[in-house]
Amino acid sequence: MSGKIVNNVFRASGVIAATPGGLDWSTAVVTGSTLSASAGKGYFINTTSNACTVTLPSSAEIGDQIVFADYARTWSTNNLIIDTNGNNFQGDPDTYTVDYSTAGQSLNIVYSDATKGWLPVSDDAVADAPSPPATQKGIFAFGNSGSVTNIKNLVNSSGVVASDATGVGTARSNAAGTTYGGDKGIFGFGNPAASGYTGITNLVSNSGVVASDTSAVGTARQGLAAAQYGGIAAGTAIFGFGFISAATGITNLVNSSGVVGSDVSAVGTGRNYLGGANYGGDKVIFGYGRLNSGSVTGITNLVNSSGVVSSDVSAVGTARKELAAASYGNDKALFVGGRNSGGTAVSLKNLVNSSGVVASDVTGVGNATRSYQATLYGGDKAIFAFGVDGSGNYVNKSNLVNNVGVMASDVSGVGTAREWSPALGYSSSA
């Protein structure tokens, strides 16, 4: 006879009996930050002091079963994180993150097949909605190099800027771009010529292909900003502020399919040439810019996870316009550069924490640059590129920002030197 021998318990009577569910429960409570789990085992996971990342077996067979229990009811404080180690979890690949974050859960998972992978057959409180992987690549497109253009430059997951590629869509500058749909992007609005503004948009695929023009929905304008909100899984984004015949504070929401909504009445003070970036994982901050009076400001407006814009927050950093903003470190953001009240390009940055609080100025960040843009890349880093230097020259340099907000020195650029080339992140694959 042959077959698989399951774990058994020797009773005091001498009778051999199988453990419940054929599982062998670990006698030691797991308190560490990592655990390599084995099929046919049960584990008590105590996350009182830290989160615990559990790595599942890489070689799983149909019917393999593992159980985890929240020993101290603290998974809501420090999560149980599942690393599926090359296999799917509920049909999602292992590039997705699986977090169990509700107190008092017990998780019973069984391996099904290569398609669905590990499946929960019981969990007391379901909190396993997978989080898509972070954006890995970026793209700069359009801009003004003396005349408007529709060229594009792709950025790989290491922050390397590629040479010019022929763009698609109406050539323009002073547009905005943002990620939407988790791994895609949208460019919108802008100035297609010496005069006149547009509300057209161009969708960007998860392979960096820019689609042809989509007819305008929102009010045509230029000098606006855009960012994603609601979290990567939600796939939503927002365009905000800009200049029509005067500075405005209207916004337009973008759904997970890249469809732009109609105008939403302004809440914050109307302005253009501002920056916008995601912070806190699912929120947006708009900041700085040029007011109708022509003066510059440092006020900010926070946008919640539902896309609702808050009223003005008093300025902290140096008032300026024509700056750039990006997210970094998964939940933070920064504003960089711009032109101050005297019209001078500046080399400074303002970090934004995970609660949307803007820090005071940090000076000496790269060469003074204005009229440039930035985007997330590599999951948790940012890149600022192109723009105009302190002497008024178009540049094609770039500056990388690491995942703690430190900006590297200038890198000689690739591609056509230009200003107002909007940027966005795309692709969940490196």
Task: Throw out a few tags for this protein.
Neuraminidase; five-stranded mixed beta sheet; four-stranded mixed beta sheet
Shape: elongated
Cα-atom radius of gyration: 25 Å
Assign a percent range to the helix content: under 10%
Number of helices: 0
Q: What is the spatial order of strands in the main beta sheet?
A: 3-5-7-10-11
Residue windows where pLDDT falls under 50 for at least 5 positions: 1-20
How is the main sheet built? 5 strands, mixed
**Number of E strands:** 32
Task: Tell me which CATH architecture of the largest domain applies here.
Answer: 6 Propeller
What is the fold's blueprint, element by element?
Layout: E1 8-10, E2 16-18, E3 24-25, E4 34-36, E5 41-45, E6 52-55, E7 65-70, E8 80-83, E9 98-100, E10 106-111, E11 118-123, E12 137-141, E13 152-155, E14 176-180, E15 184-190, E16 198-204, E17 225-229, E18 236-243, E19 247-254, E20 275-279, E21 283-290, E22 296-303, E23 324-328, E24 332-336, E25 348-352, E26 362-363, E27 369-370, E28 373-377, E29 381-385, E30 388-389, E31 398-401, E32 423-426
Parallel strand pairs: 3-5, 4-6, 5-7, 6-8
Antiparallel strand pairs: 1-2, 7-10, 8-9, 10-11, 12-13, 12-32, 14-15, 15-16, 17-18, 18-19, 20-21, 21-22, 23-24, 24-25, 25-26, 27-30, 28-29, 29-31
Plain-language structure description:
This protein is an all-beta fold and 430 residues long. It folds into 2 domains: 8-123, gp9 (Jelly Rolls, Sandwich), CATH 2.60.120; 137-426, Kelch-type beta propeller (Neuraminidase, 6 Propeller). It has no helices and 32 strands. The strands form 10 sheets. Strands 3-5-7-10-11 form a 5-stranded mixed beta sheet, with no helix packed on it. A hairpin with a 3-residue loop joins β20 and β21. Mean pLDDT is 91; it is low at 1-20.
